[in-house]
Input
Amino acid sequence: MKSLKHLNKYFFKYRYRLLFGTLCVIASNLFGIYPAQVVRHGIDLIIETVKVGRLMDGFDSKVSVEKTLAFNAFLFLLFIIALAVIKGVFTFLMRQTIIIASRLIEYDLKNEIFEHYQDLSLSFYRRNNTGDLMNRISEDVTRVRMYLGPAIMYTINLVVLFVLVIVTMFNVNAKLTIYVLLPLPLLSLAIYLVSDKMNRFSDSVQAQQSRLSTFVQEAFSGIRVLKSFVKEDQRGKEFAQESEHYKNKSMELVKVNALFFPLIMMLVGVSTILVIWIGGQEVIAGTITMGNIAEFIIYVNLLTWPIASIGWVTSLVQRAAASQERINEFLRITPDISDSSPTPRRGDKAMNSDMSQLPPLGGGGAINGRVEFRDVSFLYPDSGVRALDHVSFIVEPGKSLAVLGKTGAGKSTLASLIVRMYDATGGKVLIDDKEIQTFPLAALRSNIGYVPQDVFLFSDSIANNIAFGLTAPPTPQRGDQSTGQLPPLGGRGAVEQAAKDAVIYDNIMEFPKGFDTMLGERGITLSGGQKQRVSIARAIIRNPKILLFDDCLSAVDTHTEEQILHNLFRVMKDRTSLIISHRVSTVKHADYIIVLDNGKIAEQGTHESLLGTRGLYLELYEKQLLEEEVK
Ligand SMILES: Nc1ncnc2c1ncn2[C@@H]1O[C@H](COP(=O)(O)OP(=O)(O)OP(=O)(O)O)[C@@H](O)[C@H]1O
Ligand SMILES: [Mg+2]
Output
């Protein structure tokens, strides 16, 4: 249960709402109990009047007595209806406050988790799979909400009702009360057991459901592979099998579900029979009236659901505690990579004004762009792979450095250290002679235009994908999604210029919708080389001080590569740039080249000097020249 303490801050936040809700629960219960007493008075009155009427057999006044009786009965009826309406109003208000509070807390909790997820570093995402992350922010939060809303509402309801009803019942007749209450704990226990089983079954149905969706999703994202390997039939059979599991699990759930209501009805029935049986004896003995029996039957009905809900609520709370524990487990993880000096978190109100205080990008901001690796080593914590081994180099502001190496040499790792996806495990990474950790993360990253090796584009228009690189706060500049209009700030001009620099402009203009062409799930698929170039445009539109290209020309032919490089060198003027590649043709124009091999710097120098060294560089060069000629 300790895990649920995390929610206390939210209870505090919505305390007035919850307090008002509690008052409504009390009021709605009071108006639920009064009718029972009205019914008792009504029945007793009718019985008395009928008795008096019998005595008056043969007298004229009998008619007037009967008339009064009918009128009184009608008044009682009206009174009961009025009470029921008032109870209804308070029940409505109770749900309006407590259930809405639970939805608000759910909203806050989801935002809290998402914010936290975004702060966590890459190594966290390596360790945990996406499905797990999604579950905790959706299903687990839903379970916690079930605890927040229904569980709390029914508990308050139960306590209030119990106190009010039991006291009234004992006042009427203690013996009858005890007999009537006897089956109820049993009811509660039975319901706990049934709902526990139900929850367990529905969990496994849920789990199977998500297996099914993963299966379907994978089948469709891998549809090319699936079709070309002619695996449709096999996949179809596998799907049928998974569906079969799902069906069986659902059937189990349905069976237990079907048991739920009959069980409640039976135990309520037992209570009602006891009231009439034991109560009847009491009436015969003259200790209570018939009206009391009617009153008791109403009480039993009032008490049934709240007492039954003890069992239900218990299992809800248990599930919520388990879910909240899973959520807390992630919330407790602190990001490995964070600011040494506190900077505004995303989502803080102060964000926008603080963002404007960041160094203006590219416009002679805080960063000059000197990058230095001083004896840097890096060990991947999970695999223990030593990806970088005592690497040292300096890139002066405005100069370009190329990193060449075979696959697995550690090139991408080197890039991730500059954007602080990871921190070096040995040595120091310095920017402008200051340790990289001293820069606020947001300021550092907004000064870097990073083109990652695995291109990721959003399901959005090409224009928006490129404009994503602009660092201005998104809200006011956000284009109208429905029309695909471009954000006014930065303007289409900037997007088009970036596209031209990345030699993707002509390609884009060939699409009927040009820059408004949608990408991804809702749109077209770009070729590998086109994607890379959109990704480059996204990086250079930032006007960053440091450009970081991780193998971003691997999918374009050497001719286009020449063209892009020609443009890039113009963009790269005045900027520090790191070009990572395994192709000599990409790196040969750089001011300085290092050749990485197995995490170590094997050779370094300019293109000419490296050719003179007659080592790994020359070997790669000759091999690649040969490949070009063969093509
Ligand atoms: N997240 C990771 N966890 C553990 N080991 C990793 C991780 N990423 C890379 N490695 C390992 O680190 C080494 C260097 O990888 P890196 O991605 O830096 O190579 P690369 O030079 O970029 O190769 P490529 O040219 O194929 O992109 C490899 O042996 C790789 O298996
Ligand atoms: Mg790589």
Summary: Confidence is low (pLDDT under 50) at residues 341-364, 473-489.
